[in-house]
Every structure is written in structure tokens, then in C-alpha cells.
Amino acid sequence: MSRRTPSYSIERKKSRWGWIFVTPTLIFFLLFSFYPIFNAFYTSLFNKKLLSLKPPDFIGFNNYSYLLKSPDFWNSIRATLVFTLGTFAPLLIFSLIFAIFIMSRKRFQKFFQIAYYSPAVLSSVVAAVIWLLIFDPRGLGNQWLNLIMNTPGIDHKWLANSVMVQMSTMLVYFWKYVGYFTIIFIVGLASIPQSIYEAAKIDGANDWKIFWYITLPLLKPTTILVSIMSMLQCLKTFSTQYLFTQGGAPLAPINVITLNVYNTAIRDHRIGRASAMSIVLFIIMLFLTWLQFKSSRADEISY
């Protein structure tokens, strides 16, 4: 008879304890992430009313076929993509610029980090309310823009004009989250060894070449993380658009999918159709995340 080796027994104990620690997290994700997704898909197959006591009628994929023919839903797709494209790129670019600026300072680094990050501490509702006051015809938004453009007394209709209200929602999200992603970039920059920069300077590389050929490639994992997180955050936007429409802004230009889901479920009581919208949004988010991973796939850079 062969004896069981001590190393084999130790590995089994490690594996057992690993599953013990991981199981609560798996259960949490199953209950609060995977189950709602499957339940939403199941609900989307029925003509279910939110407050009706009658059993819902099974209609298969009719909710999805209705969405494909609905101009209102396609407008939500357009509003969501416009908001995401208009917010995602500035968030990614300026958060990297701000991170490099902060890391290049020899003094007041902590102050700048706190200053940039402080809006991220606020809830989305509070941030939207603050900017509602700024975008008021008598608020600071008009005052600042009139000062820059030398157009005293002009109301730029931040919450009335269809183009301006879209830019307003983008501005609120940029202000709130740029500091959050700046901190993530700072962590990524701090993880790059200084010896690499010193070697590049000895070889005669200038600041631009150091950034383009050293910093940016070594920062690629952080850039992918920030790009995916910021994109998903933009696709999930809701609070700003909801509060702006409640404040009198036109609905159509900022009727993103999440807002349409809310109005369809809560206002129209069509929970089945709203569930179909949420599944479509989930598929869009999944596809764009996969596309970013695929487009950024390359050989790993080691240092």
C-alpha cells in the first residue's frame, strides 16, 4: 500500500479552505447578480403588468420584436450611445492627464488627489441637484459661459435645448467620475519602477518619448481597466437624466435605456417589456466589454 504524501495532503487542505472562503462570495453573486439576470430574461418572455394580480401571459420573444420596431426604444439606444461616446473618451483622456500632472508634482500631491476625488464621494442624486442649480438660467453655468464668450445676459438653455441638455448630462458625469479614474491611473503610474525612467533618460529619451514608449505601454492594464469601468458606468447612467427630466428638461434627447426601463416599468406598469430592455442593455454591455478586451489583446509587457 502506498502512503499518502504530506504535500498532497497539504494541497488538499489548502484547496478545501480555499473553497470555504470562496463559497460565500459565490453564493452572494448567484443571489444578487446571476439570479436577477436570469429572472429578468424569464420575465421578458411574458406580458406581465406590474400591479396586475392575473397570471402573466407567455408571449415568447414578442417583447423583443416590439422593441426592434419601437422608435422610442431606438431613440433610447441613440441617447445611450451618444452619452457614452461623449463621456467615455473625455473621462479616459483627462483622467490620465490629471494623473500624470499629479504624479509630476513634488508638493501638494495629496491635496490634488483629494480635490479631484471629492466629487466621487457624492451620490449621483446630490451631484445632479448641484448641477441643476448651476444650470439654472440665473446660475453659475450661464455666468461662466457668458464671461468666457463675452455674451452678458444670454440664457444658454442648459436644460431646454436638446443639444445643451445632452452636454449637461455629460458634464455632470465627467465632473463626478474623472477624479475616481484619476486615482486608479495614479496607482498604475506608481507601480512602474523608476529605474526604467532613469535608464531611458540616460539613453537620451525626452519626456514625450518616455511617455509614448514607456509609460503608455506599461500602463496598458490600468488603461483597459479604466476604459471598461468608465464605459459600463456611462451605459448604466440613470440618476442625472431622471432628475433633469423631473426638473423640466426634454425627455427625448436624454431618454437613455435605463430611464426608459424605469418609465416603462414604473409609469406604464409593463414589467415584461422593461425586462426585455434590460436584457438588451446587458447584451450591449457584454458585447462592448468583449470588444474592448479583444481589441486590446496583445503580448504582455513585463518589466
UniProtKB/TrEMBL annotation:
A Pfam family this chain is assigned to: BPD_transp_1
Membrane topology, from the record: Multi-pass membrane protein
Keywords attached to this entry: Cell membrane, Membrane, Transmembrane, Transmembrane helix, Transport
Transmembrane regions listed in the UniProt entry: 20-42, 77-102, 114-134, 177-198, 210-231, 243-262, 274-293
Subcellular location: Cell membrane
Superkingdom, natural source: Bacteria
Gene3D superfamilies: MetI-like
Domain (ABC transmembrane type-1): residue spans on this chain: 77-292
One of the GO biological process terms: transmembrane transport
Cellular component GO terms, alphabetical: plasma membrane
Similarity remark: Belongs to the binding-protein-dependent transport system permease family.
This protein's name: ABC transporter permease
Natural source organism: Candidatus Infernicultor aquiphilus
